[in-house]
Amino acid sequence: NAGVTQTPKFRVLKTGQSMTLLCAQDMNHEYMYWYRQDPGMGLRLIHYSVGEGTTAKGEVPDGYNVSRLKKQNFLLGLESAAPSQTSVYFCASSYSIGNQPQHFGDGTRLSIL
Amino acid sequence: GQSLEQPSEVTAVEGAIVQINCTYQTSGFYGLSWYQQHDGGAPTFLSYNALDGLEETGRFSSFLSRSDSYGYLLLQELQMKDSASYFCAASYSGAGSYQLTFGKGTKLSVIP
Questions:
Q1: CB contact (8 A) between residue A101 and residue B48
Q2: What's the pLDDT at A99?
Q3: Which has the closest alpha carbon to A83: A1, A4, A16, A35?
Q4: Closest CA to B99 of A36, A57, A40, A94
Q5: Which of A105, A93, A86, A76 is nearest to A41 (CA)?
């Protein structure tokens, strides 16, 4: 049972390049989330999805887009990367919102030069 | 946006008890979670409180007081492996939206 899998684990981009971070979960969870974690800032919610075909904005959505075409996958896109988007990105999933725990992937460490 | 307050660092001795406090804003609040994160690792869920009172899971307990907008995580019989960052996270809802807001984390150092 893999849980939540994120790819890639590390990536270095140049300013202005685009890329997509992939997240897959095998727990049949309805809810999926993308967070970024910066030193001293904790985790901040970028976007989330309450089911296949739905997405919603979180606390820091600017500069990112997401898609949830299949229940098990949640994609995070950076259309034109900026140095301010250098961060560690975590994907998470949960059975429902509320008291259900969120299960996190191992993270993607992204550096933008 | 909503913000949570928790201490940035705590140091405690192996075998001791430590309490990590968290205060949150009340508008739209419906629950408080705690997560543990070791350096370089992913956050892992520890506990959740929706109602006032104490929830116990082994050596870890979590407490919530909705009237005081306050909660804490209690770690007993500290072990060296408990050295990690601990985050409180408050769930908020309203106007058809949802938000889980994390505190900035408390770095716990357990010393011999």
A1: yes
A2: 63
A3: A16
A4: A57
A5: A86
